[in-house]
Automatic annotation (TrEMBL):
Residues 494-523 are annotated as: Disordered. The gene is carB_2. Residues 1-446 form the Biotin carboxylation domain. It comes from Capillimicrobium parvum. The keyword Disulfide bond does not apply. This is biotin carboxylase.
């Protein structure tokens, strides 16, 4: 077994790996960027080294600096976690050449599965069913149009060959949407994966996203740990996961488990990996293989009792898997909600910021994997995840009730998160019926209904009115009372927090949600902090309501900003590359004369 392992990541996954190393008796080495100096994973590790500046390119993606730190620290192995360099074959190969163990599959397997077109070819040759579409890259929009007309038909999904995590994935429901989807997928592929190559698949409009966890060692053992359902997504990025999948029976589980292990054997896999697939009307199609530990591995751990991260470390050290396929048993039901710093009421706009008071839920069957704490910051430089909230109970219905209880306990002040969204989904009839909930996630009116209660403002002399919550006692019984009125002028004369003398805080719904950004009158304001990636209009141009004005890149996502009204672009104070804050003016649109 290793004596020291470097964790080439940050946030909750870095902490997750460090904890596993501690339990295995292995020393841990953390790395960090300039803005992560005070991060929890840095304090938790046995050693920590600065990589560089705040951007991922200067730090967590800086292979030369990472290799230098690996040599300096004396680490024998590197755990990449997920994201960043986790599926980077050149980095895995550089480790191998330097005599450092890469805790994951060999570079050849990452190469094979890293290219989605190559992966489809391999799976097709191995007899694994794939979604109908191309196995070769498609060079131009004209080529795509001809292939679709002859072989596939609309709707289609245009995908970056090196994509993943929802990046480089666009849908064309009809021919007039093809060019925009093709260019968007290629652009994101180039930006996030340095590869603008795209391919085409038939788009299944409402499939279930079902994936299978696999483990493999160097002794020829390849097993699966059952499946997870990850159907609730926004922009093709997961929000809620559960295990086992509510629509998969024992017969289907055995079938897709065989598909997954066949796929892993086809590329001589090692360690923890995931076969992702689409399930619809009793058919299961291979989608892609993620050659790393997944964000949602936790729900599989909860129902199997198997520590996936430890198994991956042991496999990399040359040890056999600790369990056989016959010993894998699924018990109960687990659900994971991703607690992201996003505002669901504004179409999941990123909402980075600093956390105030912070208290995680607890109690029976509750697990929280987080990488931040009170006073921590969710930076726009990285992904928006605050934590993963995972619960387990005897069945899906009881697990749902437990999740609602845990969400109600979560206290995150000063930051807008997806807690209200998850509460609404968990309480919905669609969730109870085990639907994909796409009708809710894509319903902008429903999402807007999740907005926080805002301050009530009038034009009277009394000025601003606030809704505040107080706790009172009447005849020895406690009551929470909402009061709408002017700010409480206690102490220094400013507004006091809604709290009673006994220190009880206001209801979580009032604490965890906040507004900001949007449009008022002629001004189109930025709903988020980020960088202007593209400007699609010019000053003086006439636009319709809903026309795309700009694309803002924030927290590794492209966010399309559309006109809030029809009119003429009177002012356009932005250009590509500009950094904007939430509420900054993007455009002024005057009524056309």
């Amino acid at each position: 077994m290793f004596e020291k392992v470097l964790v080439a990541n940050r946030g909750e996954i870095a902490l997750r790996v460090i904890r596993a190393l501690e339990e295995l008796g292995i020393a841990s080495v953390a790395v960090y960027s300039e803005i992560d100096r005070d991060a929890l994973h840095v304090a938790r590790a046995d050693e920590a080294y600065l990589l560089g500046g705040p951007t991922a390119a200067e730090s967590y993606l800086n292979v030369d600096k990472l290799m230098e730190v690996i040599r300096e620290s004396g680490a024998q192995a590197v755990h990449p976690g997920y994201g960043f360099l986790a599926e980077n074959a050149p980095f895995a190969r550089a480790c191998e050449e330097a005599g450092i163990v890469f805790i994951g599959p060999p570079a050849s397997a990452i190469d094979a599965m890293g290219s989605k077109t190559r992966a489809r070819e391999i799976m097709q040759a191995a007899g694994v069913p794939i979604v109908p579409g191309t196995t070769e890259p498609v060079d131009t929009v004209d080529d795509a149009r001809k292939l679709i007309d002859k072989q596939i038909g609309y709707p289609v999904a245009i995908k970056a060959a090196g994509g993943g995590g929802g990046k480089g994935f666009r849908v064309a429901l009809s021919e007039d949407e093809l060019e925009k989807a093709f260019e968007g997928a290629a652009r994101e592929g180039e930006k996030f994966f340095s590869d603008a190559t795209v391919y085409i698949e038939r788009y299944l409009p409402d499939p279930r996203h079902v994936e299978v966890q696999v483990l493999a060692d160097t002794h020829g053992n390849v097993i699966h740990l059952g499946e997870r359902d990850c159907s609730i997504q926004r922009r093709h990025q997961k929000l809620i996961e559960e295990a086992p999948a509510p629509v998969v029976d024992d017969e289907m589980r055995a079938r897709i488990g065989k598909i997954a292990t066949d796929a892993a054997r086809a590329v001589d896999y090692r360690g923890a990996g995931t076969i992702e697939g689409l399930y619809q009307d009793g058919e299961y199609f291979f989608l892609e293989m993620n050659t790393r530990v997944q964000v949602e591995h936790c729900v599989t751990e909860m129902v199997t009792g198997i520590d996936i991260v430890k198994e991956g470390i042991r496999a990399a050290a040359g040890e056999p898997l600790s369990v056989s396929q016959d010993e894998v048993v699924l018990r109960g039901h687990a659900i994971e909600c991703r607690i992201n710093a996003e505002d669901a009421s504004r179409n999941f706009a990123p909402a980075p910021g600093r956390i105030g008071a912070y208290k995680e839920p607890s109690g029976p069957g509750v697990r929280v994997d987080s990488g931040v704490g009170e006073g921590g910051e969710v930076s726009p430089m990285y992904d928006p995840m605050v934590a993963k909230l995972i619960v387990w109970d005897a069945d899906r219905e009881q697990a749902t009730r437990r999740m609602l209880r845990a969400l109600g306990e979560y206290e995150i002040e000063g930051l807008t998160t997806l807690v209200p969204f998850h509460e609404a989904i968990m309480a919905s009839e669609q969730w109870a019926n085990a639907e994909t909930c796409r009708d809710l996630v894509e319903d902008k009116a429903w999402l807007k209904s999740l907005a926080a209660e805002k301050a009530l403002v009038d034009d009277s002399e009394d000025g601003e009115k606030l809704e505040q919550t107080y706790t009172v006692e009447v005849s020895g019984k406690r009551f929470d009372v909402k009061v709408i009125g002017p700010p409480f002028a206690g102490g220094g004369g400013g507004a006091a927090p809604a709290a009673s003398a006994n220190g009880k805080k206001p209801a979580r719904s009032a604490r965890a949600r906040s507004g900001g950004g949007g449009a008022g009158g002629d001004t189109l304001a930025s709903p988020m902090q980020g960088n202007i990636f593209k400007v699609l209009v010019e000053a003086g141009q006439t636009v319709e309501e809903g026309a795309m004005i700009a694309i803002i890149e924030a927290m590794k996502m492209e966010n399309e900003i559309t006109a809030h009204k029809a009119g003429v672009i009177a002012e356009l104070p932005i250009k590509v590359g500009d950094a904007v804050t939430s509420g900054a003016t993007l455009a002024v649109i005057k009524d056309a004369e």
